[in-house]
Specification:
38% helix, six-stranded parallel β-sheet, alpha/beta, 21% strand
Length: 186
């Protein structure tokens, strides 16, 4: 069935690379192969791969994250490029003659907040979202909560999500299952 989409949330250099400004480090680096493998599998099955990606501007006084975190995922910077093999996969697949690969700019934790993601999914009759990326307990979590509230079915790939906070990561995985009825798979 083509009613499924893979969301690869914020898998960028700033969140994953050793020199990233808000990096999850090794836990996020370890999931690279799984994320790229899932992207390839979904595309091969003619399913959608959506890459909701933070977009920020330095010293933005109107954005709440400016007070919470150092500058990250600034437009047109190395930090906002996808990490490792995902960047190559994206470059190889973004311009193919279909709309099955989409990079989606987002400015809040949730991929639904202030974007056309819900409309995009509903137009394509997508009912199930597979969640991957970082941070499990921030952007992946907030996207999952919004998706649940919009009646999407959720699948969280536990070997394809990571955080810089192991306690938060474990808490979020439990929350996905117990409060959002998500299916948790390896």
């Amino acid at each position: 069935m083509n009613n499924e989409a893979l969301l690869i949330i914020d898998y960028t250099n700033d969140f994953v690379a050793d020199k990233g400004s808000l990096t999850c480090g090794l836990p996020a680096q370890k999931i690279e192969k799984q994320i790229v493998s899932l992207a390839e599998q979904f595309l091969k099955e003619n399913k959608w791969v959506i890459l909701p990606t933070d977009l920020h501007f330095k010293n933005n006084p109107y954005h709440p994250e400016t007070k919470l975190f150092p500058p990250h995922n600034l437009g047109h910077t190395w930090g906002r490029e996808f990490y490792g093999e995902l960047q190559k996969w994206y470059e190889d697949n973004k311009d193919k003659d279909n709309d099955h690969v989409l990079m989606l700019d987002k400015t809040r934790y949730s991929a639904f907040c202030g974007t056309n993601l819900d409309l995009f999914l509903r137009e394509r009759k997508i009912t199930t979202l597979h969640l991957t990326g970082v941070c499990t307990d921030i952007c992946v979590l907030h996207t999952a909560v919004d998706a649940y509230n919009k009646c999407y079915k959720l699948v969280v790939h536990k070997n394809a999500v990571a955080s810089f906070d192991e306690t938060g990561h474990k808490w979020a995985l439990n929350h996905f299952k117990t409060c959002l009825d998500a299916k948790i798979i390896d």
